Amino acid sequence: MSQQSVLAELRDLRKSYKLGGVFSRSTEAVRAIDGVSFDIHRGEVLGLVGESGSGKTTVGRVLLRLIEPTAGKIRFRGQDITHFSRAQLRPIRRHMQLVFQDPFGSLNPRMTVGRLLTTPLIVHSPDLSRTEQRRRVDEVLELVGLFPAAAGRYPHEFSGGQRQRIAIARALMPGPELLVADEPVSALDVSVQAQVVNLLLDLRDRLDLAILFIAHDLAVVGTISDRVAVMYLGRIVELADTVDLFTAPRHPYTEALFSAVPQVEAEARRARIILVGDMPSPVTPPSGCPFRTRCRYALDACAQEVPKLREIAPRHWKSCIRDDLDLVPAVDLPARESSPVLGDHI
Q: Range with the lowest mean pLDDT among 103-107, 187-191, 339-343?
């Protein structure tokens, strides 16, 4: 991918939260993000995966400037937006939108779907007439697989999958170039998850959308993503094209995540890698490699310094000093549907 195709860039991004109250003298801080760097290209889906507490959601919200970064740089469409004021961010926000995890909690139950979808237009395109607003609402509802009649109904009248389609439609209303989808299918039934994933892929192809897809389910991430970044304790530990990551993982944490993916076929099942203990505290992370306290391949040298994220093969990056490991790949790479399943209509 060329540099011209880069839509968003994160460089050494950090976010810390000071412990204690406003008047506390404590110098301790929770390092939610600790030096994250990656690019998102136009029209690509970048999967961001890791355990709960690894910092995935924080990365997405800092990228959108919903949370202020402690350090680092954020560039979007070639502009450094790291220190933009709210007024400066307003014209940028229409190009970067968020899809929340819980579709019911993110939709105002007192507003009709039509009003929910019209609100972004009032904010970002105030010159549109009511007729133009209604036309845009109908267009986007059909785009996400719902009928225009949905505009007159309330969120509680829809199923979970339909509500998530409405949430996606609301994010699409201003015409964004980047969607940050924060666990968008984890609250849905498995059958509906596939429909929403295929819908996002279809929207990516139709609208040339870039999507940061945040999830903890590797099977879903493998289905939708062009590239995958693996996070652990606020850091990217591996980043590669999806096929390369699934067929030749290079970081022990990625191997452990693959071993936890359930396999239906008995002959495909493999030994589960049990990570000893809990994820270390982001307040007092271990010295050296943050994963070394749970890694079965750890050496004494792993405690000496934090390994840098380095390119160990074309488009394949990892932060681990062990280049001699022969890690077990994922048993199977989830296949993509050739066309989206636009079921779950009204």
A: 339-343
pLDDT recorded at residue 265: 56
Does residue 342 lie within any of the structural domains? no
Which of 175, 200, 221 is the last residue in one of the domains?
Answer: 175
Q: CA angle, corner 249, sides to 247 and 252, nearest 5?
A: 150
Averaged pLDDT for residues 120-143: 94
Please state the domain count of the chain.
Answer: 2
How far is 187 from 278, CA to CA, in rounded Å?
A: 24
- CA 136 to CA 326: how far, in whole Å? 53
- For residue 12, give the nearest of 69, 72, 64 by alpha carbon: 72
Residues 281 and 166 in one domain: no
Q: Which helix (H) or strand (E) holds 119?
A: helix 113-124
Q: Would you state the structure tokens that stand for residue 36, as one six-digit string?
A: 């994250």
228 forms beta bridges with 47, 240
Cα separation, 195 vs 197, whole angstroms: 6
Give the side-chain half-sphere CA count within 13 A for 220: 26
Residue 284 corresponds to which amino acid?
Answer: T
Question: Which pairing describes strands 6-18 and 71-76: parallel, antiparallel, or unpaired?
Answer: antiparallel
pLDDT digits (tens, 9 = 90+) for 40-57: 999 999 999 998 889 999
- The DSSP secondary structure of 226-283, one letter per residue, reads SEEEEEETTEEEEEEEHHHHHHS--SHHHHHHHHTS--SSGGG-----PPPSPPPPSS
195 and 72 belong to one structural domain: yes
**Phi-psi category of residue 251: left, alpha or beta, with phi > 0 → left and psi -120 to 50 → alpha:** beta
| CB hemisphere CA count around 95 (13 angstroms) | 15
Q: Is the pTM of this model over 0.85?
A: yes
Mean pLDDT over residues 283-291, rounded? 91
**Cα dihedral 116, 119, 124, 130 in deg (nearest 10):** 110
Structure tokens at 156: 């509680």
Q: How many CB atoms lie under 10 A from the CB of residue 67?
A: 17
Cα separation, 251 vs 244, whole angstroms: 12
CA atoms within 13 A of residue 161's CA, in its CB half-sphere = 21
Domain identity same for 141 and 71: no
Give the pLDDT band (50/70/90) at residue 201.
very high
Which amino acid belongs to residue 214?
I
Helix, strand or coil, per DSSP, at residue 179? strand
